[in-house]
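Have a close read of the entry that follows and walk me through the local backbone shapes. See right below:
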Amino acid sequence: MRNKFAFILLLFIIGYVAQAQSGSTSVTNLRCEYLENPFGVDVSNPRFSWMLIDNTLGAKQEAYQILVSTDSLKIAKGIGDSWNSGKVNYDRILTSYSGEKLQPFTKYFWSVSVWNNSNEKAVSSVASFETGMMEMENWTGSWISDDKDIHEKAAPYFRKEFSTNRKIKSARVYVAAAGLYDLYLNGEKVGDHVLDPVYTRFDRRNLYVTFDITHQLEKDKNAIGILLGNGWYNHQSTAVWYFHKAPWRNRPAFCLDLRINYEDGTTEVINSGKDWKTSLSPVIFNSIYTAEHYDARLEQPGWCEPDFDDSKWNNVIYRSAPSQNIVSQMLHPIRHVQKIEAKSITKLNDTTYVFDIGRNIAGVSQITVAGGEGTILRLKHGERLYDDGHVDISNIDVHYRPTGDSDPFQTDIYILKGSGTETFMPRFNYKGFQYVEVTSNKALQLSKESLTAYFMHSDVPVAGKLETTNPTINRIWAATNNSYLSNLFGYPTDCPQREKNGWTGDAHIAIETGLYSFDGITIYEKWLADHRDEQQPNGVLPSIIPTDGWGYEWGNGPDWTSTIALIPWNIYLFYGDASLLEACYENIKRYVDHITEISPSGTTTWGLGDWVPVKSKSPVELTSTCYYYADALILSKAAKLFNKAADAEKYATLAQTIKKAFNEKFFHAETGIYASGTQTELSTPLYWGLVPEQEKERVAANLAKRVEADNFHLDVGLLGQKAILNALSENGYAEEAYKVAAQETYPSWGWWMVNGATTLLENWDIDAQNDISMNHIMFGEIGAWLYKGLGGIYPDQNKPGFKNVQLKPSFISTLDGVEVSHQSPFGEIKSAWKHERKSVLYSVTIPANSTADFYIPAGYKIKKANDTISGNKIELIADENGKCKLQAGSYLIELL
């Protein structure tokens, strides 16, 4: 492993030299609203971003110019008749459109020119964005449904035929739905999204999706079809959160506009209305929470193709819009991201087979089978097996409250039509599973190839990589990412099987983990809009978001619902974009003011506490007050950023009041111990900054002693695990932090790995009797710590978005090497180190237009440094704090 890692590090260095020698200055990665060439842009001033590629040491953008036009040829000629920003002498790579008013349903082209610090000009290729509805009044379609009520189990089909007899220039379809839908045109599914639109508070905000269907339209006859699913809108399954009693609940409905632009300059709109027909489909039941049932005998071949006989279909009915706030779904969609073949099959008897896909995922399974008409298959999905080989779902069905036996948990039902080989995969559901038990009411022959699985999640781009010489650490990182993605479905969830709820505490715990590894801003901007939809006038937020009303009375409080402050702040740190922070400013303010109102002493007892601890339970007042302080501090910083001087002073003073009250309540000055001195009680104040500066050294030493006394095993819950590794490594105890992180016996992350886990668990105890989902993200802070505590990559709040990188690597003595990278808005940051004899070789890359502060680890000094692009030696001078300033470029630094 050591030789392999040395080889990887060598390739990393050689690769950058080769890239530099063959490369040149260019502008890439053009994004509008953080999406590549998006459709359906609804905002009046969309954000543009780009990236400067320049391998020259110290490369920097000195100026930029943006051109926008409805004519791509004009952009190519340097003409921006919609907007010409002019040459702007600024190094930022993010700005907002500021030209003529954008028109709906219009494609705009844009490019950016950049001048570097050698006055060399680079011009990007032409990118595009296309506006959508822009305003509610631009919809022409009606909201329609069938005449069934909420108790009808079968999903409805809808169809309409139309003709086009002119040459088509372009065509777009805009679909808004209350529930879920699949869209079809001339017999083919439109797009590769699944579970559209993503979940919102339906009676306050609905999303529509735009698709380019230019090449799916026929010149003559066309047929468009919609299959509607329930999703969270018409929740027919019953569980402890009462979604079946949601105030918005109704039979699914949709609104559609299909706009065809012809070469002759005219536009035709085909829309949803009374001229559509409807029928019940073979999807005889669908639940986002449990499963899907399908009777293939009820299929109607050709239902979404021209010339289908729909004379026996029913008329549709008009429905009112579920809300008056229908906006574009501007985020990375949910997709079937990865196909996974079954790893093994076990035949239990002639009618029962168990498939193992080899890893725990969120998604669906697809079965291919041949059998007689009316044969019933049941596909039961679970995370573990009983001793007798059957699938065990007892760890994930504990909150399900079925009213009968017709809706088994995580169990798809498929009824064969009996005409050769048949394939089934659910459309309106996903599950959390590793095993699938297939049972039939008649004997069937199945093989390992009969079943495949699809890993589903919001298809966010990868932004981080990590490899170390410790296989267990690598597995922990991979498992953390698997759990993070398994819980990203247009909003962050806690688990993909038992709940699928947007638990706020789980989400803010994992925010850094998510942002280091994935480009997730579009998901979080959507989810914080959900927060704004759900917040009560007094500032209170529910513990799950979106919600039907559950969670305002239990599980919320600063330790959980600080998402309203922590997530916008972290988006600002990682992207250098204050838009979300500004959009949530008044919401954060109302939230902090409410905590202050109910907590006159300066500390607060409102909260859930350190959820699922190993053994030591810390006071809720201690942990919640830490988050109250963090919220007040973020609010004061945001106020300063937005030039709200009075607020900045007010909330900075509040933060100090909280800190003083907290220390008076919990800090024992004679011992340097907080409360009773547990891992959570010591690490949480350190991590969130409540320890007085002069006491940090003593408290950190006490934490290190506590961890050593616990034999470098964890004794924390959800809130403590967010803090403990960071509190150790950021206060001089990186070696101790690594021992905890790399631990392989109970209780630890590594304990899960050596016992076969491919995702993170909900409980440190594998054999616990409750809280034992096997795919949870709530203990996922270690994923972020690996980037920080080992690779040393931190954002700088004074120059956010990694405009300046804080490099604070820890050269762990018992680890041979680490390679970490993060794709920042400016480009890829790489931080890699390995021990070589008595030296450490540290290789680092800072992207163009960025800088870094490299903090030399205690006990080391620089022997030599080279620019790996030119091979020239570089003189690096550290200040009194051991900090060296690095320009953009690639470096190889040898330290002793």
Summary: The CA atoms of residues 171 and 214 lie 5 Å apart. The chain has 18 helices and 45 strands. Confidence is low (pLDDT under 50) at residues 5-23.
